[in-house]
Amino acid sequence: AMKDGFNQYAPMPGNNLLKETIAEKVETLYNIKYNPDTEITVTAGGTQAIFTALAAIINTGDEVIIFEPAYDSYAPTIKLLGGLVKTYELDPPNYNIDWEMVKKLFTASTRMIILNSPHNPTGSILSADDMKSLIKLINGTDILILSDEVYEHLIYDGQKHQSVMLFPELRERSFVIASFGKLLHATGWKLGYCLAPEVLTKEFRKVHQFNVFSVNSPMQQAIANYLQKPQHYLGIGKFFQEKRDYFRKLLASSRLQLLPCNGSYFQCVSYSNISDEKDVDFSMRLIKEFGVATIPVSAFYQKSTDHKIIRFCFAKENATLASAAEKLKNV
């Protein structure tokens, strides 16, 4: 793409071929049409898209409901914009949502709900029943949805990704966030996109224009060309399911207790039968004594809630996973 001359500013909303390719991909996967000119915006990664969507909507005093453990950009961004974070804490091992409890968080100031499925850090996913329950809750309100779907293709065991795009009552009020870094397992490229109805996209682009203005031009063209062959991304779920299964099989002989992993490339485990250490301390000891890096799940709660659970990432070479598992057998 660089040799072909794609080295100057791309259009503010994104490379036209890439937006058209995104629209075709979405229609193929979900049978939903988004207008490439007015409803699709290319961003400098998923996190930028999340920030921009929040900045377009949230004002001082607005409340945003998030489900913790949560990706760590949500709460700081809401607070930076003057919003108030209303937290619903999910509990292991399944991290299910009780929607009647969520309803109790609603006030006259509730402006938005952030969804994340497949979920980082837990690997849980939302079901069709979850989406139907959410529709009932927000019916008759003006609450918007920010749906973080960056792991949309990483769904396992024959399950289906329940995107908000599949539900008209949700789609009409949702910003849908996606990531090419996750889609192409190349997170360092930092490209993503936001899908939203035209009225929401107009607000999104008011921020995007002065927040980023234009995203990496040659990379947009290269990705657009690459995605002309859908097989380049349709097999990614199978690819990562094999890695999940391989890693889980390796860990089965350790003392760590495996939690369900229905999506994403994260595997959470409990060490409660091994130690009563805080998860941060246990994670530090794994690094120092065993040479394995992990993330304590308490880091994803604002109150540092500690269920003695840590998160591994299995988006690694098999040799790396095998080496880590061998070390973890000694814990």
Record field, number of beta strands: 11
Q: Average pLDDT value?
A: 96
CATH class of the largest domain: Alpha Beta
* CATH-scheme architecture of the largest domain: 3-Layer(aba) Sandwich
CATH topology category name of the largest domain: Aspartate Aminotransferase, domain 2
Please state the overall shape, judged from the principal axes of the Cα atoms. Answer: globular
Number of helices: 13
Strand content bin: 15-25%
Please provide a written account of the structure.
The protein is an alpha/beta fold and 331 residues long. It folds into two domains: 16-232, Type I PLP-dependent aspartate aminotransferase-like (Major domain) (Aspartate Aminotransferase, domain 2); 235-328, Aspartate Aminotransferase, domain 1 (Alpha-Beta Complex). The chain is 38% helix and 16% strand. The protein has helices at 16-30, 46-57, 74-80, 99-103, 128-138, 168-171, 180-183, 198-211, 217-226, 231-234, 236-251, 279-290, 318-328, and strands spanning 40-43, 63-68, 84-89, 110-116, 144-148, 174-179, 192-195, 257-258, 266-270, 295-296, 309-313. The strands form two sheets. The chain has a seven-stranded mixed β-sheet, with helices on both faces. A hairpin with a 7-residue loop joins β8 (257-258) and β9. α2 (46-57) crosses α8. It starts with 15 loop residues before the first helix and ends with a helix.
Quick recap of the structure?
By secondary structure, the protein is an alpha/beta fold. Helices cover 38% and strands 16% of the residues. The mean pLDDT is 96.
